[in-house]
Specification:
The structure is a homodimer of 229-residue chains. With 229 residues, chain A is an alpha+beta fold. Chain A folds into 2 domains: 77 residues, Glutaredoxin, CATH 3.40.30.10; 136 residues, Glutathione S-transferase Yfyf (Class Pi), Chain A, domain 2. Helix content of chain A is 54%, strand content 8%. Chain A has 9 helices and 4 strands; from the N terminus they run βαβββαααααααα. The longest helix of chain A is centred in the middle third of the chain and has 33 residues. The first copy, chain A, is globular and about 50 Å long. At the A-B interface, α3 and α6 of A face α3 and α6 of B. Chains A, B: InterPro entries: Glutathione-S-Trfase_C_sf, Glutathione_S-Trfase, Glutathione_S-Trfase_N, GST_UstS-like_C, Thioredoxin-like_sf. Chains A, B: It holds the Pfam family GST_C_7.
Chain lengths: 229, 229
């Protein structure tokens, strides 16, 4: 049964950067499930209308279609219980939701201002217009004005990572001795930045940088090809 | 085998408010383990020197002595595997550490300025001197100057709870359908405040307030007696 993952792409179809799509790519690799990652752009709403969603990731697995990264992760765990687990059991699945909420609301919130213009720069022309209009409406200001003090914003991003840092002082991954979906969720933010921005988000001696390096080492060649560097 | 838990107390020995001690009291109740909670004060270092710790909680279980809330929780899980689990398995135990790190660094950080003077007010005389000296050294200012704008600080505390709020919109407890240690860790912060402060930390319609009410309902009469009405 063929699996297809619709993933956000830039003008270059091999530049994939959505943090939510990365969560699922990493989850599929973790479960060892072969799949095709199909590039999709913000303005190609028609191409995913069949999934009753206007956003990616969208996963098609045979005759099943699932939208939304959290719903897709839950689907994969239920549909492929004999493959390596994303959550390590029901309690792990429930506990992971806090890390997801924190990443969505706190970590992404601290990262977005730093990379918003970089994302814009990587989009194709129709997506650039869409992105500028929708994001300027969301932030109530021009893309260029969202981050008036990048140094302070970078310091704030690094401070926001304090609970990840504290956890990684005691264990190599958020999931413990090996990564779980919680790791993929936080790593999604770093792959989002890596796909578009030259910014050095972390000093080398940060335990979070060590974890990021361990996560990068585990990427498949295919995944590595779809991010920068 | 008798279990004793040394817990921080105010001038009134029945006023227990340490968030770290509450984590363990809730964990012991969760596991259904009978224990004696022994009041201890900041300046009674000699009374816990046998545990090679100068802080509570300290747990004595027969001939075993364990200090530090995280170490105690891990000990209880390993020593009483047939009792209700605190983590729901190894992955859950690893994933819980992120919630612990977040609570220690972010939630407590946002709460402390709001209740520092209330804590001071509830201590006995020797502890008041100790608390003022140690906390003024830590904050680099007088206790009275730590929170110049309580309204802004309260707003900041409520904003900090956004990942808890997001999680509780989808499930009744951080641990899922029933509470786990992650719930006890976050609840420790609310019981800390409840033990000393009249401040209304949450509006009634906040999903976090609903969760806090569910957690309070589950407290034993003994635990309820040791916090404020």
């Amino acid at each position: 049964m063929a699996i297809t993952l619709y993933e956000l792409a830039g003008a270059d179809p091999d530049r994939r950067f959505s943090p939510f799509c990365w969560r699922i790519r990493l989850a599929l690799e973790h479960k060892g499930l072969p799949f095709e990652g199909r590039p999709w752009r913000f303005t190609e709403k028609d191409a995913i209308a069949f999934a009753r969603s206007d956003k990616v990731p969208v996963l098609v697995d045979g005759d099943r279609t699932v939208a939304d990264s959290s719903a897709i992760a839950a689907y994969l765990e239920a549909a492929y219980p004999d493959r390596p687990s994303l959550f390590g059991g029901g309690a792990g699945e429930a506990l992971t939701r806090f890390t997801v909420g924190w990443t969505d609301l706190v970590l992404h919130g601290a990262l977005v201002p730093l990379i918003l213009l970089d994302v814009h720069r990587h989009l194709d022309e129709p997506d650039r217009r869409y992105f500028r209009e929708s994001r300027e409406a969301r932030f109530g200001t021009s893309l260029e004005a969202v981050c008036p003090d990048p140094d302070a914003q970078l310091a704030s991003f690094r401070r926001a990572l304090s609970p990840v840092r504290a956890t990684l002082r005691g264990q190599p991954f958020l999931g413990g001795a090996a990564p779980l979906y919680a790791d993929f969720v936080v790593m999604g933010a770093f792959l989002w930045a890596r796909g578009v921005s030259p910014l050095g988000l972390l000093p080398d001696d940060d335990p979070v940088a060590g974890w990021r390096a361990r996560m990068l080492e585990r990427l498949s060649d295919e995944a590595r090809r779809l991010t920068a560097g």
